[in-house]
Design goal:
This protein is mainly α and 122 residues long. It contains five helices and two strands. It has helices spanning 15-27, 31-45, 50-57, 61-80, 93-104, and strands at 108-111, 114-117. It is globular. The relative contact order is 0.10.
Length: 122
C-alpha cells in the first residue's frame, strides 16, 4: 500500500507582512495588484497549499512563487511595482477602442468559394 502524503500548506510566517498586505488589499483599486495581494494574503494565512492558491486565482504555481520572491526581495512596493509579465502589453482604454474600431472596420465578405477578409478603405 502506497503512503499518501498530505500537501503542505503554504505559509509566509511573517505576521507584520500579513498585516501590511491586509491593509494594502483594503485600499487596492487595480485588478492585477489586487490579485497579487490576495495571493500573498492567502499564503500568509497558512490555510492553503500553493496549488490551492494558484487554482483559486487562476495562476500557475510558478507565478505565485515569483510573486512571493518579489515580495521578499522588495516588500509590498516590489510586489506591486512589478512589470507586466507576458503577452501583449496592456494599453489604455483609448488605445483599445482605436484598435477595436480598426479591426471592426474590416468586413468579412462571403463569397461562394468561402470567406475573404476585406481591408478597410483609407
Amino acid at each position: 500500500m502506497a503512503k499518501r502524503s498530505i500537501p503542505k500548506r503554504f505559509h509566509l510566517k511573517d505576521p507584520e507582512l500579513a498585516k501590511a498586505v491586509a491593509a494594502a488589499l483594503a485600499d487596492c483599486k487595480e485588478v492585477k495588484a489586487h490579485q497579487r495581494l490576495l495571493a500573498v494574503r492567502m499564503a500568509a494565512s497558512g490555510q492553503f497549499t500553493a496549488q490551492q492558491i494558484a487554482e483559486q486565482l487562476g495562476i500557475s504555481r510558478r507565478r505565485l512563487f515569483d510573486w512571493i520572491k518579489m515580495l521578499k526581495a522588495g516588500g509590498l512596493p516590489g510586489l506591486l511595482a512589478c512589470d507586466h509579465g507576458g503577452g501583449a502589453t496592456p494599453g489604455s482604454p483609448a488605445q483599445f477602442a482605436r484598435s477595436f474600431r480598426r479591426l471592426a472596420g474590416r468586413a468579412v465578405e462571403t463569397r461562394r468559394g468561402g470567406a475573404t477578409l476585406a481591408t478597410p478603405a483609407p
